[in-house]
Amino acid sequence: QVQLVESGGRLVQAGGSLRLSCAASGRTRSSLAMGWFRQVSGKEREFIASLDSTGGNAIYADSVKGRFTISGDNAKNTVYLQMNSLKPEDTAVYYCAAGGSRHSLHYWGQGTQVTVSS
């Protein structure tokens, strides 16, 4: 069993930056593929970025490519999402997910709200 706790979401102005954190427990992060997703109320959850189980090979959604960076810290069992040049359309609840591979991310955190004001 893996527990995930996200943090770092808050209100920020357009053009600003935020770093989200996701702390994993119950299994070492270094053996997990991990990803970030977001969801706006009434819409489907959207993939943002992921790392494979080696902690590398990052992939990104086109909507965030060049602005967001996913990274992991094995020593802290944590994965981060650095978000730069934020836009109002980035407003959503951001979720961390983990699993044995990036195609089977079945552990989920509770989400953290990011609000970008124009």
Characterization of the model:
- With 118 residues, this protein is mostly beta strands.
- It is built from no helices and eleven strands.
- It has strands at residues 3-7, 11-13, 18-25, 33-39, 46-51, 59-60, 68-73, 78-83, 92-99, 105-108, 112-117.
- The strands form two sheets. Strands 2, 4, 5, 6, 9, 10 and 11 form a seven-stranded mixed beta sheet that branches. Strands 1-3-8-7 form a four-stranded antiparallel beta sheet, with no helix packed on it.
- A hairpin with a 6-residue loop joins strand 4 (33-39) and strand 5.
- The model has no long low-confidence stretch (mean pLDDT 93).
Number of strands: 11
Quaternary state reads single chain
End-to-end Cα distance, whole Å, is 40 Å
- The radius of gyration is 13 Å
Query: H/E series, N to C?
Result: EEEEEEEEEEE
Helicity level: under 10%
* Weakly predicted, low-confidence segments: none
For the sheet with most strands, the description reads:
7 strands, mixed
Layout of secondary structure:
Blueprint: E1 3-7, E2 11-13, E3 18-25, E4 33-39, E5 46-51, E6 59-60, E7 68-73, E8 78-83, E9 92-99, E10 105-108, E11 112-117
Parallel strand pairs: 2-11
Antiparallel strand pairs: 1-3, 3-8, 4-5, 4-9, 5-6, 7-8, 9-10, 9-11
